[in-house]
Amino acid sequence: MGNKSFWSEKKILLTGGNGFLGRHIKNALVCHDCQITAPTRDECDFTDLIGTKKMLSRDNFDIVIHAAIDCGDLNAQTATPARIFYNNLTMNSNLFDSSYKAGVKKFVGFGSYWAYPTALQKPLKENEYLDGELEDVSKVNGMIKRMLYVNGWAYKKEYNFNSIHLILPNIYGKNQKTRNVVSALVDKFKQAKSNNENFVRVWGDGSSVRDFLYIDDAVSAILLAIEKYDDAEPLNIGTGIATSIKELVKNIIIANSFSGEIIWEKDKPNGIAYRVLKTDKMKKVLNYTPATSLEEGINIVSSC
Predict the structure, then answer these.
(1) How far apart are CA 181 and CA 210, in angstroms?
(2) CB 116 within 8 A of CB 135
(3) Going by DSSP bridges, is the β-strand pair 243-244/209-210 parallel, antiparallel, or unpaired?
(4) What are the residues whose beta carbons fall under 8 Å from the beta carbon of 81, sequence distance 6 or more?
(5) Is the predicted pLDDT of residue 6 greater than 90, yes or no?
(6) What percent of the chain has pLDDT over 90?
(7) If you ran DSSP here, which 8-state letter would residue 244 be given?
(8) Three-class SS of residue 263?
(9) Which of 24, 217, 267, 279 is 20 to 30 A from 50, comparing alpha carbons?
C-alpha cells in the first residue's frame, strides 16, 4: 500500500490519529520508513494557536494529514452547532496557517459527499462542490468541509501552498467505533440473531442510494493521492457505485445468515435520496479502482 520510496524518511503529522480514518492511515504508514507524529487532543489541542504553532515548528514536518474533526453525534450537532462550527474553523485555520509558516510541503484535508448540494440527484462531480444549498441536518458539517477546501484554495492562490482536498463517501470497516449506517445495521442484525429475534426494524423505505467505500480501499486511495495529486481543486475518493439501503440490507442479511422479517419503518426519514461520487477523475489521476466489493466488505465487518 503506497510507494515506499516516496514515504522514506518523511516526517508526517497526523491529526485525528485515534479516529476511524486516522487510525487506519497510521497503521498503513507504519510499514513505511517514515516518522509519524499523531498527538492526542490532550497532547495538542489544535484549536489553540500557540500550541499548534509549537507542534508544527518542533519537527520540520513534510506532510500534514488532517483527519481530525469535532463533529459530535446528531444530538450534539442539533444542540451545539455554533460550538462545533467555531471549533472546527478555528482548528482548520490554525493548522493551515501554522503548516504554511512552518514550511510543510503538503497539507491533506478531507471533505465529505454530504457537503455537496442537497438537491443533486446524480453522480457528484468535483466542480459542483459549492454549487447549492445544504439541508439543515448537514449544514454545519457540510460548511465546515467546504470551508476547509476554500482554506486550501486561498493558501494555494496567495502563497502557492501545496494542499489537497479529498472528498470521501460513507467509509466503513471492522472495529468501527463511530456509528454510521453500515456499522449500525450490522450490529442490529447481529444482535437480533444472537437474541433469536425474528424481525429487525430499519428506518425509511430503503430507497436512499449511497456510495460505500471499504476503509482499506479509502486509505490506499488517500496514500496514492498524497503521492500523485498536487491540485487544490477537490478530488472524489469513492467507488462510484450506487447502492440502495435495501441492497445494503440484503448483503447484511446474507452475511449474518439472518432469516427473520425486515420491517421498513416508512414513517421514519430516508435521508438525502442520492449520494454517489463520480470517480472518473480519481481513476484518471490515481489510476486506481477500489478492490473490495460491498459483499466482501460486509462479510469482513460481520465476521468481527
Answers:
(1) 10
(2) no
(3) antiparallel
(4) 139, 140
(5) yes
(6) 88
(7) E
(8) strand
(9) 24
Cell 435521508 appears where? 271
**Crossing angle of helices 245-255/294-302, nearest 10°?**
50
State residue 73's pLDDT score.
60
Q: Which residue has the higher pLDDT, 178 or 103?
A: 103
Average pLDDT over residues 162-183: 92
User: How high is the pLDDT of residue 1?
Assistant: 59
Give residue-wise pLDDT tens across range 83-115: 999 999 999 999 999 999 999 999 999 999 999
Rg (CA), the chain: 20
Please determine, for residue 119, whether its predicted confidence score (pLDDT) is greater than 90: yes
Q: Do 99 and 48 form a contact (C-beta atoms < 8 A)?
A: no
Grid cell, residue 171, equals: 467509509
Q: What is the pTM of this model?
A: 0.96
pLDDT at residue 72, as a whole number: 63
End-to-end CA distance of the chain: 23
Provide CB contacts within 8 A for 47, sequence distance 6+: 87, 90, 91, 94
Cell of 190: 447481529
Q: Cα–Cα–Cα angle for 250, 219, 174, nearest 5°? A: 45
- Per-residue DSSP letter, 287: -
What is the spatial distance between Cα 147 and Cα 70, in angstroms, rounded to a whole number?
A: 14
In the chain the domains, ranked by start, together with CATH numbers, are 7-172+212-239+278-290 (3.40.50.720)
H-type helices in 211-256, by residue range? 215-228, 245-255
Whole-angstrom distance, CA of residue 244 vs CA of residue 228: 32
Q: Look at residue 182 in the predicted model and tell me its pLDDT.
A: 95
Sign of CA dihedral 81, 276, 219, 162: negative
